[in-house]
Amino acid sequence: MYFFEKYCNNNIRYDLITKFNYKKLKTIPKLKKIILNFGCKTSDFKKISIALLSLNLITKKQSKFVSAKKPNVLLKIRKGEPVGCKIILTKKFMFLFLSKLLFKNLQYFKFRIRLKQNTNSLTFNIKNILIFKILEQNYILFNNMDNLHLTIVTNSKNDYEFFYFLNLLKL
Questions:
Q1: Model confidence over 24-76: pLDDT tens digits?
Q2: Domain 41-168 belongs to what topology?
Q3: Sign of the dihedral defined by the CA atoms of residues 116, 119, 122, 126, in that order
Q4: Sequence-ordered list of residues with C-beta below 8 angstroms from that of 49, at least 6 positions apart, any chain
């Protein structure tokens, strides 16, 4: 078990139980998944393949191409062409990536919070992808990357629980 996973399971759960007085353990908010994606405005295969490689290097897991569902005449994209790449992290990969992310400098992030009906999620836009050490070592290849979109999904019931949970995660 990783350090951050142990921290979430012990300390954060204990703080949430003392703050909100849960009666069932299943109702305690926890992280569901982390979604990372690069969206390119063109279907340039070179850019998309570099984005796919960077996601593989950051997460140590295989990512997938995302294809266009509808044609876009303004961007000259046909239906079915690759327009980005995406990876969904769960379980140990999620905690490993989150621990890497929290030890980085947070000045590179722009925050945007999306609140849906049953799932609360926090969306980041990482401006400079070179904050990750493994990508910084290959600066020539990764210097002209687009923003990385990172979404953290939890199962908290209301906004107050959600923001308290994010505060406990030091976000």
A1: 888 888 889 999 988 776 667 788 888 888 888 888 889 888 877 787 777 77
A2: 50s Ribosomal Protein L5; Chain: A, (3.30.1440)
A3: negative
A4: none
